[in-house]
Each structure stands twice: as structure tokens, then as C-alpha cells.
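CHAIN AND CONFORMATION:

***
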Amino acid sequence: MKTPNFSVGFEEMLRQHPYLFHLHTNFTDGTSSIEDYCTFAMNNGYKYLIFTEHVRQVCTYDFKEFERALEDARHRFPSLQISLGVEAKLLPNGTLDVSKEVLDRVDVLGIACHSFPSDVEMYTKAMEHVLKESYAKDLLRVWVHPGLFFKKNNITENRLFSYLLDLAIHQGVYVEYNIKYGLPPVNLQYLIPPQRKVLGIDGHSVKDLKERNEEITSIEQSFREELSKA
């Protein structure tokens, strides 16, 4: 179920609170449960958790059951702010692999690129269409692991990537700094204003979080400091 005024709360989170964004659970390819992540957050001083579970037009799991599990966690961990999001992959026709029914129920849309054909022109046109598409503009949108297409295809020329980053920002899309892949690369991070930058864990287990906990808190603190000066 959508959270009223979610974008306002998200901006407050980025400015003031420790958070865990971009988490995958044992509903898909993760190995930790929603409860496992909530317990970790409680024990390590995080206030916000935003799950962005993988989806398809037809999910291989019961999305409503996932939604119910998140709602149950909200009741069991009332001091945490737990949000429902999805990670939907880009398709060659310029749409996302997610149903309207799911989009109507979530707060966050993660725009991802997985197993896309290695055709730069096709990719660019598809991303342009998704970033400009109006059907999802009522959602808070985040480009997750941005630049993964370029990295996987060993494309080092940055002109198109820079163009898409600029387009995303002007379309009101947040850009994830993905700690798992180190994306976007350091030489392009200056293009992302502090107001549009979010740290993404891309976590698939609590073990991932434990191994990176100090790094996560350090980067988030640096992001908050950037925002306070902006």
C-alpha cells in the first residue's frame, strides 16, 4: 500500500537519518528474510529500510504475500520506517518488466538494467523512453546500479552515460550510488547533485550488510554533509 507523502519522508531520510536502501529478500534471490533485515537495522541504528524486490510482469512469487510480510514487519518493528519498492528491469521496447497492478501498490520504483542486448543505440532509446515515461512519474523513481550496461559491455566512453544521467536528474529521478558495483564511477559522480543522490546497498543478505556496515554509515554521513551544504 502506498505511503502518503512518501517523497517528503524520503527527502527527510536523506537529510537526517541512517537508512538501508535496495534490499532483496528470500522471496527472490536473497537469502535473508524481511525480519532478519529489520533486526539488523534495530541493532545497528538504522531508522529506514526500503526494500526494492525484483519483479516481472508476471512474478515468480506471490507479490501480495511479500506485501503482507512487509506490513507485518511494520507492526512488529514500529520504530522502523519500512517502505515497499520494486526493482524492474529495462526491456528493449522501452518499457519496464513490471505490471501496472504492482506499480499501483508501491512507493519506490527502481529502474534497472539486466541481461539487455549489447546494442548501445537500443539501450539509449529504451532508457530515454523509460525516463520520460509518464505512467510512473507518480512514484519516487531511482536509477539503480546506473551504468551497469556500460560496465558489462566494456564501454568506457562516457558521453552517452553522462547524457542519460543528466536526463534522469531533469526528469526528477534519483540516482543510486551502488556500493556493490561502485556505480556510477567516481569520474561521473560530480554530475549528480546531492539532492538526487541515494546510497544503494544492493543487499541480498544480512551478511552483506555486516561486511559493509562501517562503509555504509561513512558514505551516508558524507552524503548528509553534502546535502547540508547544498
